[in-house]
Amino acid sequence: MIRAFDALSLPLLRWLDPEDAHRLAIGGLKLLPPIRPRPDDQKLAVRAFGLNFPNPIGMAAGFDKNAEVPDALLRLGFGFVEVGTVTPKPQIGNPRPRLLRLERDEAVINRMGFNNDGAEIVLRRLAARANQGGIVGVNVGANKDSPDRVADYVKLIETFAPVASYFTVNVSSPNTPGLRNMQQAAILDELLAQVIDARERVREKAGDTPVLLKIAPDLSLAQLDEVVQVARSRRVDGMIVANTTVARPRSLRDKAKAEETGGLSGRPLFRLSTRMVAETYVRAEGAFPLIGVGGIDSGGAALTKIRAGASLVQLYSSLVYKGLGLVEEIKADLAATLLRTGRDSLAEIVGADAATITAEDWPV
Q1: SS3 297
Q2: What is the pLDDT of residues 116-136, one digit of tens each?
Q3: Is the Cβ–Cβ distance between 153 and 182 less than 8 Å?
Q4: Which helix (H) or strand (E) holds 157?
Q5: Cα distance between residue 67 and residue 84, in whole Å
Q6: 173 classed as catalytic
Q7: Which of 3, 76, 81, 172 is surrounded by the fewest CB atoms within 10 Å?
C-alpha cells in the first residue's frame, strides 16, 4: 500500500509548490485507513531516555507541526514521531515562499519561522489521542515577538507534560531572529535550569518526561564543548544533532536556489551533521543518548549515523524525494546488517566509528 501511495503521490506532490504539497500530504495522511503496522524485527528495538522504541526511525519535527497526523505516521512504520515546533501563541511564520526544493541536490531550504497553530490547539489534539500509545515527542520553541523566551519554554513544558512522550527544546532554528543565541553557555544554562525545574514541578501529576536539547550543526567545536558541558551539568536526558544549516556546501549544484536564505536540509547536510553527531558523542561520554538527524536517505546512511554515535535517527527531507517507503527500506537494511554481522541489537554498534570520524578532515 505504501509503495502504491508513493507511486501515485510523489509525481503529483513534486509538481506542486512545496508548501502546498506539504499540506496535501498532511491531508492525505488524515484519510489513511487505520491499518495495523507490520511488527518490527525485535533486534531493532531501542531503549533510550527511559523509553522503549520499537525501531530507531523517527519522523523529525517540522513535518507534523500541529500534531494532525502522528498516529498515521506511527501506523506507517515510524518508531516515533516528533510534532512541532509548537509555540505558546499561534504564529503565522515568515512570508511565502518559504520552502524551496533543490531537486538536483535532493535538498530543501526552509525559512518557515515556527508557523504553527499554538499550544492550545496542539494540546487539544494530543490529549484526544492520549490513549493510542506510541512515542510522540513535542518540539517546543519561543514566539518570535516574545518578551521572555525562557518563560515560553517553561510554559510549554508545564502545558504539554501530561501528553508528551518527551520534549525537544529547540534553540537551533535559524529562522527565528536571535534564537540561536540561546545556545550560548550562560543563556543555555539558565534556560535548561528553568526547563528542568518546570519538568520536576509537574512530575507528580504528569510523570517523568525526558527533556532533549536540539542543537545547530553550525556550532564551532569550542561552542559545542560548552553546550555539551551545560547539557551534562543540567542533566538533560539527550540531545538531537542537528538542525538545519545556514552553511552552503561546495558540492551544491543548484547554485541559484542555494543563495536563498534559510536552513538547508537533505543529502548535502549528511556529512556535517554526522560529524557533529560524532563530536557530540565523544564529548557526552555516555551521559545521555543522541538522536542523529540530517541527510539520512538510505539504510547505509542511517547505519553511518548510528556508528557515529546516534542511538536513534530522524528523517524528513529525504521523504520528499524517496517517499514513505523509505522507512521500511531503512529498517530492512538495518535488520539485515545485524543478521549478517551476528549482532543482537543496534546498541552494540552505537558510536563504533565516532573516534575515526572525528579524526577526518572537516566537511566543507
Answers
A1: coil
A2: 999 999 999 999 998 899 999
A3: no
A4: helix 149-160
A5: 7
A6: yes
A7: 3
* The pairing of beta strand 263-266 with beta strand 107-110: antiparallel
The answer to whether 335 touches 44, Cβ cutoff 8 Å, is yes
Which residue's entry shows cell 511488527? 39
Q: Name residue, grid cell 512545496.
A: 18
Q: What nine digits make up the cell of 188?
A: 543555555
**In angstroms, what CA-CA distances link 125 with 80, 83, 295?**
17, 11, 30
Whether the CB-CB separation of 52 and 138 falls below 8 Å is answered with: no
Cα distance between residue 233 and residue 288, in whole Å: 12
Angle in degrees, 0-180, between the axes of helices 185-201 and 221-233, rounded to the nearest 10: 30
**CA nearest neighbour of 301 among 249, 266, 341:** 266
305, 330 in Cβ contact below 8 A?
no
Q: What share of the chain is helix, strand, coil (3-state, %, to 5)?
A: 45, 15, 40
pLDDT (tens digit per residue) in 171-218: 999 989 899 999 999 999 999 999 999 999 999 889 999 999 999 999
Neighbouring C-beta atoms of residue 36, cutoff 10 Å: 6
* Main-chain phi, psi angles of 315, to 5 degrees: -120, 160
Question: Contact at 8 Å (CB) between 122 and 83?
Answer: yes
Measured distance CA(243)–CA(240) in Å, rounded: 8
Write down the pTM of the prediction. 0.95
